[in-house]
Amino acid sequence: MEQLNEEIEQIMQTYPGKPEYLIFLLQDIQDKAGYISPESMQLVSEHTGVPLTQAYSVATFYQSFRLEPRGDHDIRVCLGTACHLKGGQRITEELERRLNVQAGETTEDQRFTLSTVNCVGACALAPVVVVDDEYEPHVTAKKLDRKLKILEHEFDENKEGGPDA
Amino acid sequence: MPEQQAVIDNTHQRLQSAEDLNELRQHLCDRVDPNRPEIVVCHGTGCMANGSTQVTEALAAALKKAGSEAKLMPGIKTTGCQGFCSRGPLIIIRPQGLFYQQVKPKDAEEIVQQTIMQGKPVERLLYQDPKTGETIHTEDEIPFYKMQQRVVLHNIGRIDPSDIADYIAAGGYQALAKALTTMTPEDVVAQVEASGLRGRGGAGFPTGRKWRSALQAIERKGRPVYVVVNGDEGDPGAFMDRTIMEGDPHAVLEGLILGAYALGAQMGYLYVRAEYPLAIKHLEIAMMQARAYGLLGDNILGSGFTFDARINRGAGAFVCGESTALFTSIEGKPGNPRPKYVRSVEEGLWGRPTVLNNVETWANIPLIVNKGGDWYADLGVPHSTGTKVFSLVGKVNNVGLVEVPMGIKLSEIVETIGGGVPDGRPFKAVQTGGPSGGCIPYSLKDTPVDFDSLTKAGSMMGSGAMIVMDDSDCVVDVGRYFLRFLEEESCGKCLPCRLGLTRLRELLDNFAKGKGSEADIDDLISLSEAIQDGALCALGSSAPNPVLTTLQYFREEYIAHVKDKKCPAGVCKDLITYTIDADACTGCTACARRCPQNCIRGKKKEAHIIEVGDCIRCGICLETCKFKAVQVD
Amino acid sequence: MITLTINDQEVKARKGWTLLEAARHHGVDIPTLCYHEAVAPSGACRLCMVELKDGDWSKLVASCIYPVADGLNVYTETPKVQNVRRWVLEMLLAACPGSEEIATLARRYGVTTTRFATKSANEACMVCGLCVRVCEEVVGLSAIATVDRGVHKRVGAPYLKPTDVCVACGSCVTICPTGAMAKIFDTVRGEPQTKLTQLQA
User: Fold this and answer.
1) What is the pLDDT of residues B283-316, one digit of tens each?
2) Which of A18, A146, B460, B626 is deepest in the core (most CB within 10 A)?
3) Where are the domains of chain B?
4) If residue B312 lies in a helix (H) or strand (E), which one and from where to where?
5) Span B577-632: which CATH code?
6) Contacts of B535 in chain C (CB under 8 A)
7) Which class for B501: exposed (0-12), middle (13-18), buried (19 or more C-beta within 10 A)?
8) Contacts of C91 in chain B (CB under 8 A)
């Protein structure tokens, strides 16, 4: 935590305190911390001179910003046109059932965050699901099931071996 | 590509003049032995997802193992997207030009042993024309490539995009040197005007005229003026700009610098979609390298001209492709479009004269400056000059990226280059222009692909997504899809867009449920017109286009939904039932095991049945069945 | 002075006026919701759309932001203008069933029912942004802003919690054209006690 705060402080110093750097700062903080905490938002607001209300307005306007912590694994279903025609919606529904969350939510155990994305531009691979920044081409319910099982297994192993156990 | 290549050689002597650039180019060209074999591996997004990185590693290992036995040790080069994505991972072996497709890491050794050592092709990796059964050896003989005209994509698949030396050796920055030493800014604008180039982002506004108006605005208002690259490619199904930014980033940058020189701009912005991390990385590398070589920054090529640029990463908002929304986003605010009764060339970024062009437009500029506006104007057709890059996706055999001269027939793209629709299904329509465009039916398949003909057919050029649909795609469903997309992506400021898109989609939902009547079609049209006329920006005013064009060409399909309570394409869930064909079912139980509702009954090795009452029409049984026994009706 | 026509009547207008200002100056009726003299116009509600015509060419523009110019031919009651207005009002009836002001305006233009599913009976906000603009431009505080986008867009303070930045001046309630701000004001303003201490400090 301490270290994270230091890193966020460092990010602040990379950009001049001007409103035009608001989005840059929010992006860099999210890259580092996984989401933008209310404390970070306050810091960015003070650094850029953008009122907190407007910073919050920006952060909620753009789809890529997360204001809550994400799950360990990030699953994004592409819903570009090619993926839609090839069953992207069906894949989303299958994942919602499988993970028992709605798109945009994180599972209760914080393992997975499920979301949809409007075209990742990899239409030849349709339908595509992006799992932790890796493209899974031509996904089917079966392939996803296999992938999820692997991730769940890794998750359990980490939990058992990790300091929290 | 190897990371270390990306590291900038800071000790490199800055190029002080155009002569320095020529000397460097000569030096780079002399260094290359034209007979030395080269294995070119596609590292476009499609091929990488299919494992091309592993192929590259396997090839490197196989070459190392073969050691000095090879007469000439080949080099491995990784490039941007070579276009033929459905056949990836792709590799090309030069100088022969041998084209291998669907290469796996385990093929590496054979490629090295057979092709590199003995000069013989590996037959099974060659492309086989599905129509004629003929085996094809080289890239240029493959129908997918043969009918293309690669102008703006000429470097992609040839150069390593993370190495400025490759770009310079291929003639890069020659246009910039030419402009700085032999042309006035006015000359550059004149060449762009003469080229007839129209904006590749969607609306097709003549680029030269835009630059001219900007000059007039500057005369009245003075400088600064800004040049901006619109790389916020948001149309679902489009990846032209992504490919250019990833595969030839210096071309975009050189175009931008030329624009800056023509307009007297000192600062430029590249607004790139956040979903394209590789494009951002390659542009960043390109800019660092260009600065180190004295091609960007202070006193470019010793000419006294100074210009720099920065990248703004998009944050996930389709509306930021709209010019005024893009500007407000660069300014650090929510991307709400500004009510636009003043043009961007007058009042754009920070309220200053601004020239915003799309990625593909900028990448054309170096070619125009190099070869002349007249050369460019000879390509394509009179009112739509040049070539256009399209992403060909959906129900088409050869999914990928294609570049064709303007004016080519739509059917030539879909059927000849694209190889037609898979599984022998009928070619129903092509959706062009993304959520703002329209559907062109099979009956108009010979429509020439140029700005004006597409608009006449009720669609638009758009940025270049071409989505091929077959008889299993429902126009009502496609309309709902685009509207749902835009509901989420609307900025939500003006009422016709924020309220209207939802209401329009709800009317379509009724069709998808078989509710309502034929008379509701009049409501659809009337509300569509209100949105077109009333919305504040182009996102809203073009949003009803997919609905209006499908109503124009596929009205009977809409009527079938409400009158016969049928979805002819078998898509709309409330109007279809899944059944199992008892004759085709082998009783393998695969579907029953996967069914999330547990509503498929049947004993092993006996025909199964679906209990329709519990079925949620998720389609998993259809996807699972290997025997085509699951039917949709 | 600038000369233009509104509904075929030649009128004069001052340079810098918008079409709406010119029309209202000459007594021509144009409905508005998101427009108020106290703040900059934003062209959000689109009720003030008018049609510009020149021969075969025609275009709909928002009169609250479109500047007057010599030779413009402005029409305020064409079929296209009425079509936009009718649909916007009908959709507003469904979106803001809790607003008496909207119902009254819609009635004035002949829209009394809506075919769409209506929101909860209390809902009155149409997210026109007047409250946000008055708080930023006039009060100078920016205690509220629009949150989210598209169909989810709404007005609120950060994290949709009451904020101490708000001084409870009530300007937003006064300017609100639909009566919505009065209903949600308590979700925005912070504790009056904290505020007092802040002011004293």
Assistant:
1) 999 999 999 999 999 999 999 999 999 999 999 8
2) B460
3) 32-146, 172-378, 381-470, 475-564, 577-632
4) strand B308-313
5) 3.30.70.20
6) 46
7) buried
8) 495, 499-500, 503
Per the CB < 8 A criterion, the answer to whether C189 and C139 are in contact is no
Residue showing tokens 């998101």: C34
For the domain made up of A73-161, the CATH class stated in words is alpha beta
Residues of chain A numbered 58-117 and touching chain C (CB < 8 Å): 60-61
Q: Can you state the angle between helices B240-247 and B249-263, rounded to 10 degrees?
A: 90
CA distance B311 to B230: 11
Buried-exposed string B374-404: b where 16+ CB fall within 10 A, e elsewhere: eebbebbbeebbbbbbbbbbbbbbbbbbbbb
Looking at the DSSP bridge assignments, the partners of residue B630 are: B580
Please indicate if any CB of chain C lies within 8 Å of the CB of A158.
Answer: no
Domains of chain C plus CATH, in order, are 2-77 (3.10.20.740), 78-121 (no CATH), 130-192 (3.30.70.20)
Share the mean pLDDT of chain B. Answer: 93
Residue of B nearest to C84 (CA): B530
CA dist B339 and C42 (Å) reads 7
What's the rounded Cα separation, in Å, for the pair B33 and B40? Answer: 16
* Residues in a beta bridge with B393: B467
Q: What is the largest CA-CA distance in chain B?
A: 83
* β-pairing verdict for B267-272 and B226-231: parallel
What are the tokens at B126? 């060659």
Residue type for B89, please? P
In Å, how far is C143's CA from the nearest CA of chain A? 6
ipTM of the complex in this document: 0.94
Q: Report which DSSP code applies to A78.
A: E
Residue A131, Cβ neighbours under 10 Å: how many?
Answer: 19
User: If you count them, how many residues does chain B have?
Assistant: 633
The dotted CATH code for B475-564 is 1.20.1440.230
Nearest CA in chain B to A130: B49
- Closest alpha carbon within chain C to A45: C158
Closest-CA residue to B492 (of B331, B317, B316): B317
What DSSP element (H or E) covers B262? helix B249-263
- Separation in Å, CA of A121 to nearest CA in chain C: 23
pTM over 0.90: yes
CA angle B551, B576, A102 (to 5 degrees): 90
Q: Are strands B308-313 and B267-272 parallel, antiparallel or unpaired?
A: parallel
- The answer as to CATH 3.40.50.720 being correct for domain B32-146 is no
Do residue C146 and residue A51 have CB atoms under 8 angstroms apart? no
Closest residue to C142, CB basis, from A54, A60, A61:
A54
Judge: B529–C117 Cβ closer than 8 Å, yes or no: no
Q: Identify the sign of the CA torsion C120, C126, C130, C132.
A: positive
Q: pLDDT tens, A112-123?
A: 999 998 888 788
Nearest to A51 among C142, C146, C147 (CB): C142
Higher pLDDT, A125 or C90: C90
Beta-carbon contacts of residue A1 (< 8 Å; ≥ 6 apart): none
The pLDDT tens digits of the residues spanning B469-479 come to 999 999 999 99
What is the CATH class of B172-378?
A: alpha beta
Query: Between the CA of residue A80 and those of A86, B131, B623, what are the distances in Å?
Result: 10, 29, 20
Nearest CB to C44 within list B493, B523, B527: B493
CA B77 to chain centre: 23
Q: Do A126 and B332 touch (CB under 8 A)?
A: no
| DSSP letter for each residue of C15-33 | TT-BHHHHHHHTT-----S
| CA distance linking residue B358 with residue B373, whole number of Å | 19
Q: Which CATH class is domain A2-61?
A: mainly alpha
CA distance B418 to chain A (A): 12
CA angle (B233 as vertex; B6, B227 as ends), nearest 5: 75
